[in-house]
């Protein structure tokens, strides 16, 4: 019964996402598109922050790698969507594989600082490798992808569905992963690394794989982001972006996948709607964060969860044993 | 259960519909000007100056252009390109503005231009100075009412060699496109006149401590050319003095190093600084004296070039709107009218556009002096009607690459 109610809830959200273009005009629809793309990035970070317990403050780097792949390939070489997608995701994987080797030597606040520094390395590269990235000016004029569909993705509604498809794909992949025995072992590592080690798990390898997967999905969000904006600049991978993604995860609810997506939606919409009415919108956003931390430390979805108590949203009992 | 569900669905749908309806708005009515400016974040003070400048002009004309009411919608870009793109969509798609004004940063200018061309809505750039926006990568629907980064540098470089007599100069400039272009233009004309740039230093954007760079400055130079912006302009002159350099090497620079925006916050360390720009608040013309007086009375501070360019942009739109009889909905002819505007008596002096869409205007060489306890940029030399190409032919000039970190190369380093 309760489980059904929760599935119903997800179904309603999905239904709303599918039919909302019928009710929304172009501008709110582009905001929703933006929220979906950020949701992918936030969900990928959740795999680290929520499930594995690794607070990464350099996640914008993967967004950047994906986005710059699109920027450089489309404007210099006229590459099509599938090429840019493959390159963007693979490059994000390579970057995550290298960064993982460095970052996973540490835990806790040291892990956070190393990922922060690595994120800044990518930012610095975007800023200084002028011949490739056009530096501070960024790369403008990225065309919307042409998938051979009858609808031009240059328009708001088709692109929204395109982003929605990307979002659902990322959501499904991450959901499969966190529900798999591998995902459960990540949760185990979060709860007690030493116990997992005693049980015979290769803790480092699990964390490493989680780190790389998060990077890959982050890179995917970057590919969509570049096509959405038609522009990429070092501003996209600033520390502020990484911080904002962490906030999305925390606000929505760590370790829930749905939570970070909700968090991304809330922050993107708040930012854009409140700032229309007041220049003090940052203050309002700050108040929202503080209230969340005081009254819903587990985030929005974490606070709703007790209503569906008895069934855990994303972590069924571990069945597989090593 | 079923009813409950139905209630939820209906409720949420109503909400979504309400948001949607809210967006629809009238077609004919006031002339809507959409303004994109950084109202929060590091450049917020610049954004304020811009919005104030435009507001002051609209007050002067009673919020009326060509018999139609004018409505201004200001959107905060936070100085970020992705936010600026989102707000551009809002202004065009849900506010239905007929003309756009704005932004401060070059990279945002590059990001907005292709979108503006897609929307086919005229946008005026009063501040963004990136050279290529009106040189190698022009956008049809973008009209620049400000300047190009290298425009003041060109005449200044030659003047420094011939009039100030400096032969060897060290440049220290913030390491991004604006800095490269200001230094590039200076280096090109300074070296063509016979001077030598003997060292180029590039502190990154956001540098607060210049000591490591000041220590490197070669002491066998005749002067130092500095290009600072915003927060670095506030710090640099003081640190330059503290390093004991002020008495040994005269400090000259790009216009923003000493602009009206930072002068009130500077002390005696800035006195004597020489820089070129399209505007000085100390300009002694009746129009400007009146402009400065009114602006001060209204906003309690001296107008910066950000205020002046946006004030003039307001007038620009007004002249074009009158030329098309208020029918700004006919965008092609409105754009053509915007390109034809000539203002003989703006606070900064006479302005008209060249065929590439950049103003031909006076360049003023200004020297920081103290007058009645305040710092002012006294105008010591005026170059009338300078185009972005200065004395070069546009075709020849556009064959060389845009000024960058490595162009022109440092032959004498």
Structural description of this entry:
The complex is a heterodimer of chains A (322) and B (413). Chain A is built from 14 helices and two strands. With 322 residues, chain A is mainly α. Chain A has a domain at 28-238. Chain A starts with a helix and ends in an 18-residue tail after the last helix. With 413 residues, chain B is α/β, with parallel strands linked by helices. Chain B has two domains: 29-128 and 284-347, 3-Layer(aba) Sandwich (Rossmann fold); 153-282 and 362-399, Response regulator (Rossmann fold). Chain B contains twelve helices and 15 strands. In chain B, helix 2 (44-60) packs across helix 10 (305-323), helix 5 (153-164) crosses helix 6 (177-193) and helix 10 (305-323) packs across helix 11 (331-340). Mean pLDDT of chain B is 90; it is low at 18-27. The interface between A and B is large, with 35 and 39 residues.
Q: How many structural domains in the coordinates of chain B?
A: 2
**Helix vs. strand class of chain A:** mainly alpha
**Which shape of chain A, going by the Cα principal axes?**
globular
Q: Give the oligomer, counting copies of the same chain as homo and different chains as hetero.
A: heterodimer
What CATH first level of the largest domain in chain B would be assigned?
Alpha Beta
Helix content of chain B: 25-40%
Structural class of chain B: alpha/beta
Order of helices and strands of chain B: HEHEEHEHEEHEHEHEHEEHHHEEEEH
Runs of chain B in which pLDDT lies below 50 for 5 or more consecutive residues are 18-27
Largest sheet of chain A: 2 strands, antiparallel
> How many runs of DSSP E, i.e. beta strands of chain B?
15
Total strands of chain A: the figure is 2
How are the SSEs ordered, and which strands pair?
The complex is a heterodimer of chains A (322) and B (413).
Chain A: H1 2-19, H2 26-52, H3 60-77, H4 81-103, H5 108-128, H6 130-133, E1 139-140, H7 156-179, H8 181-191, H9 193-198, H10 203-229, E2 231-232, H11 239-252, H12 258-277, H13 281-295, H14 299-304
Antiparallel strand pairs in A: 1-2
Helix pairs in contact in A: 2-7, 2-10, 2-11, 2-12, 3-4, 3-5, 3-10, 4-10, 7-8, 7-10, 8-10, 11-12, 12-13
Chain B: H1 2-23, E1 31-37, H2 44-60, E2 64-65, E3 68-76, H3 81-94, E4 99-102, H4 106-119, E5 123-125, E6 142-144, H5 153-164, E7 168-173, H6 177-193, E8 196-201, H7 211-216, E9 223-227, H8 230-242, E10 251-253, E11 274-277, H9 286-299, H10 305-323, H11 331-340, E12 342-346, E13 349-353, E14 359-371, E15 374-386, H12 394-399
Parallel strand pairs in B: 1-3, 1-4, 4-5, 5-6, 7-8, 7-9, 9-10
Antiparallel strand pairs in B: 2-3, 11-14, 12-13, 13-14, 14-15
Helix pairs in contact in B: 2-10, 3-4, 5-6, 10-11
